[in-house]
Write a structure and sequence with these properties.
alpha/beta, about 15% strand, globular, binds adenosine monophosphate, about 190 residues
Length: about 190
């Protein structure tokens, strides 16, 4: 089984690249952001509680996010592996993921971390906001807060995987196909 954490700040291109990786390697793509948005759309209790955090660009609390992610993994018992997109976003989530995987005799194979400068992120997010229909992309203050939350709460998660020698940094600037190829190369070196 290959289990990949695709990591990076908001606007780094995780969603686009995760789709390509899931198709190429036959992995189940789990995006916590997409799952929350689906719940909001369906009007579930989970969606209602997540929404108040997402609208402000804050993280949904760990207990809620971890329980949701574990249920999604359990819903795919025959998966060849997973690509985690937007999870883990805190050290607590990373630790929970490790112990959850260990209980299944599995582990994270690799963290691929997309590197994109802050100016480029802001530009991409506001451009995406014009078409994505995502309120959290369209509002410059929320975009700024998401980037700040990333720096404060999420960036340290890379050190967690570095300590396990699983971190590979990937240049996330350039044509989409070139970035995909950088990711494929890193996976194929496993
Ligand atoms: P994304 O689609 O990955 O940009 O996520 C959109 C929003 O969903 C984030 O700004 C958070 O509010 C929430 N979210 C997504 N994944 C997580 C996570 N792993 N932990 C906490 N909140 C999350």
């Amino acid at each position: 089984m290959i289990n990949i954490v695709l990591f990076g700040p908001p606007g780094a291109g995780k969603g686009t690249q995760a789709l390509r990786l899931s198709e190429r390697y036959g992995l189940v793509h789990l995006s916590t952001g997409d799952i929350f948005r689906r719940n909001i759309h369906e009007g579930t209790a989970l969606g209602r509680s997540a929404r108040s955090y997402m609208d402000k660009g804050e993280l949904v609390p760990d207990t809620v996010t971890i329980a949701m992610l574990e249920a999604e993994v359990d819903a795919h018992p025959h998966a060849k592996g997973f690509i985690f997109d937007g999870f883990p976003r805190t050290e607590k989530q990373a630790e929970a993921l490790d112990s959850f995987m260990a209980r299944k005799d599995q582990q994270i194979s690799l963290m691929l971390s997309l590197q994109v400068p802050e100016q480029e992120l802001k530009k991409r997010l506001l451009q995406r906001g014009a078409t994505s229909g995502r309120a959290d992309d369209a509002n410059p203050e929320v975009v700024q807060n998401r980037i700040a939350v990333y720096a404060r709460e999420t960036a340290p998660v890379a050190h967690y995987y570095k300590r396990q020698s699983k971190l590979v940094r990937i240049d996330g600037v350039g044509p989409l196909d070139v970035i995909s190829q950088r990711l494929y190369d890193a996976i194929e070196q496993l």
